[in-house]
């Protein structure tokens, strides 16, 4: 007879499965986005929309630099940010102005807040260690939206379901490169085995440091540098603080703070009880 798990045991099993690596580590895939190579051409945005048949975001001028998509959303799974700074890069020859470009995307976190918060099991971890939303199971509750520390996943207004980057799951199953990485003309978006990507990324940082760009560093490359998510499967090389790229400096999956939240609640409840007892005691003494 099959063993029946309690709700708490089932939840713990689901969380561990979400955090653990896939059985075959050789299948673990991801993105390394080198922002120092990005030229802001938005070829990745176009390729993503074309392959996934996503609607346009409106052909209007936002007034926010040359960026007309503004942010990631249900119909924008790749977003190229244009960042204007009145500061020169450390290896820049002249001028007190610099452009930073960055192609943002779902991070496919090693510990994904959206996956852990999904009540229907619509969000799964694939054999490639990517985080995938099954649209036929999603009920549009929106729990995943508030659980994402990066504000990536969102719901479409027309059907209410949640959508985000799939890491081109359909292409990966056919051993094809994701559309955005395939279209990138400068190889700013690198796709491949995670372990190899991390090695390539560190070599790139070391080379930039040798060339005088001392501010270059990796964002979310592993669990040691980003405890709140336990590492990102789509990580970045940045040349400024994370906030400049609209990235949180210390992202944390909400479920990692559940214990702290319950402890705070317990202390608050104890304080209220103590205050109520004290008030009743003083009231009784006053009446006497």
Describe the structure in your own words.
The protein is an alpha+beta fold and about 290 residues long. The chain folds into two domains: about 5-250, Alpha-Beta Plaits (2-Layer Sandwich), CATH 3.30.70; about 255-288. The chain has helices at about 5-20, 45-50, 115, 145, 170, 180-185, 195-210, 260-285; strands at about 30-35, 80-85, 100-105, 125, 130-135, 155, 160-165, 190-195, 215-220, 235-240. The strands form four sheets. A four-stranded mixed sheet has the order 8-1-10-9. Strands 2-3 form a two-stranded antiparallel ribbon. A two-stranded antiparallel sheet has the order 4-5. The longest helix is centred in the C-terminal third of the chain and has 30 residues, at about 260-285. The protein is globular and about 80 Å long.
Strand content: 15-25%
Shape: globular
What is the fold-level CATH name, i.e. the topology of the largest domain? Alpha-Beta Plaits
Number of helices: 8
Flag low-confidence runs. none
Largest sheet: 4 strands, mixed
The strand order across the widest sheet is 8-1-10-9
Oligomer: single chain
Look at the structure and give the CATH class of the largest domain. Answer: Alpha Beta
Which structural class should the secondary elements be placed in?
alpha+beta
Total individual domains: 2
Order of helices and strands: HEHEEHEEHEEHHEHEEH
**How many individual β-strands?**
10
Which second-level CATH architecture of the largest domain applies? 2-Layer Sandwich
Helical content stands at 25-40%
If you average the pLDDT, what whole number results?
A: 87
